[in-house]
Amino acid sequence: xxxxxPINIKSYKDRQLLKRAVKxxxxxxxxxxxxxxxxxxxxxxxxxxxATTRLTAVHRIIQIDxxxxxxQEIKVKAQPKHIIHTNMSTEDLMKSIGGLLAxxxxxxxxxxxxxxxxxxxxxxxxxxxxENAIRPEPSTPTT
Length: 143
Known about the structure:
With 143 residues, this protein is an all-alpha fold.
């Protein structure tokens, strides 16, 4: 049927094993993977082969694509969430940051995120202390 076949499927068990290998993403060399895909494409395009067999080959390619998409999705989800996309050069970005610091009357040391957070925490703590100091003590009921 085919001149070169990368796989030798002779029985139902062979098909089941191949199906399991694809589903479980068993390690396969790039050359073997390409040969299998080429073989599957040949099956799909050969009009002498039964339509059900060709349809099964299409289904297998769709399954492989779905697994590849799932794998990509998992990789994307594993990446850090704070990705900033910019077309600015590093030099332009630094100039822009410098301009923002000047507008805020901050030095680079004062703009350190950790220092800003500590300053905000101190501000909140001071505000809470002031609010508690202004509030009158709850009165105790007289009997």
